[in-house]
Amino acid sequence: MTESPPAAVVRIQNLTVLYGKQRALRGVTAAFPPGAVGLLGPNGAGKSTLLKALLGFVVPDQGLMRVLDMDVAERPTQIRARLGYMPEIDAHIPGMNAVSFVAYCGQLAGLPPVDAMQRAHEVLYYVGLGEARYRNVETYSTGMKQRIKLAQAMVHDPDLLFLDEPTNGMDPKGREEMLELIRDLATNKGMNLILSSHLLPDVEFTCNDVVVLHQGAVVEQGPIKDLKNPRGSVFELRVKGDRSAFAGALLQAGMSCHAADEDLMRVFVPDDGGSRALFALAAREGVQVRHLRPSVPTLEDVFAHAVGEE
Amino acid sequence: MPIHDQSYRRYRGERLPQGRAWTVIAASGIRTMVGNRKFLALLLVAWLPFLVRAVQFYVAANFAQASMIAPTAETFRAFVEQQGAFGFFVTIFTGAGLIANDLRANALQIYLSKPMGRAEYIAGKFAVLASFLLLVTFLPAMMLLLVQIVLAGRLTFLAENLFLIPAITVYTFIETLVMGLIMLALSSVTKSSRFVGIMFAGMYFFTLAIFQAIRGVTRSTSFSWLSPIASLEQLGDVIFRQPPRYDTPIVVTILALAAMAALAAFVLERRVRGVEVVT
Q1: pLDDT at position A248, please?
Q2: Domain membership flag for residue A180
Q3: By residue range, what is the domain housing residue A292?
């Protein structure tokens, strides 16, 4: 008999984490479905803290966390046996070459030594470090260090991967390759993963679902395609006049806007207000509309709307 | 078409039960140290006193004129104490980088994201240090006892001094526990293994200097508990049934050593974490 997959790989209820007097997470309630889920938010939103709480590094002051249907407070090591974690910061075991390091991580995760070594070779090839696998990790470039962190996280074939800012410090080509790897893991290899990032394109490229964090709280969550199809329209707008006063008026009128370029605004008009509502508001505020074009909603719009960006 | 797919594959093999990660850490640490030639040289030098004592036992067993150098329980006490000096160097060589290097490379997040607890990580690191410490204290002392029996050709000495087996075992294991925990605690407070070595040597000599200074002023040795080394000497005397060299009551000595070990464990508990919280 095969076990049916859980409806959510991670469930969090009313999670609060305090660092001294600083409230890093404030009553977070979220569900991460199977597949690739983006954990999106600006720097300091609490993304890394959330991952560390799920790993058991941080003991929450309040709330419940279940990972792969197990309670984090009760079974942290059993959970970590089925998890892979790629930390945000540079991290390695000193004095080892890549293949020894990854095999060592495999053994720490419970693989027998021979299997761990075989898997180390395989995953190093998979992440593109096959030719450099006998080099000491300390001599690696930033991009290579990101890849080896991914390799050590997946050597034991986890059911769930936590990737904390996996493209940090990578050049454009390396970043593209890393995102391809992540997408391949999620779509072709059946790996569940949570990608923590402040980069919207990274999340949009790799993930199906997203949880948006802002100032330690969840402000939006759900499938990206649903979030990108709100009841309303998005317009690109360029105006002449007092832009900040106009932006304030837009917000007061229930619309949301954020700057897309130096003088270009992206405005979300809810329901069926359409462009007429924008023109009417511009006339009322005494600004001149110089450019107005309907646009397709992006994740950036969702994010801006969720965090109330102006 | 590639003859072998280098893509990612799911793992279908066996997984070992949890609770063994510390053995992986210990084995890796021991392999790393054994690969260091300078360290191997230190281990060889640490065994030279064993050879000298073995020759002494041989002469005493085979030449009646040399009966004055025949081994006694005190000989073993002196030998174990002598090996403590090598233990000092082995502790610094092996222990200074055990946690400090992991802190420098942010390796704790890697370790603690695996299915193991902090206690298991510390146990693995401690096992590396303990293995080498026992290799230069416990093992040569036991071997020396065996050499004595073999060279004497009878069990008379052992029968008369049977307490030496538990004495050597208890003393060297307590010494290893206290020194090992202190070194690991120091190694967990900084990212520089060199600085850890300096701190350990400083602790070793500074506490001894304070004790000697107080001794000079007060003409009393009641403050030997201030120094872990003096405390171990005092405890060793009692365990080996020798007259204690200091005035400190043995209960105070044991409490002092227990307090040092507890303090070291407390520091480790605070410092070995997957995340460093600065508030």
Answers
A1: 86
A2: no
A3: 232-307
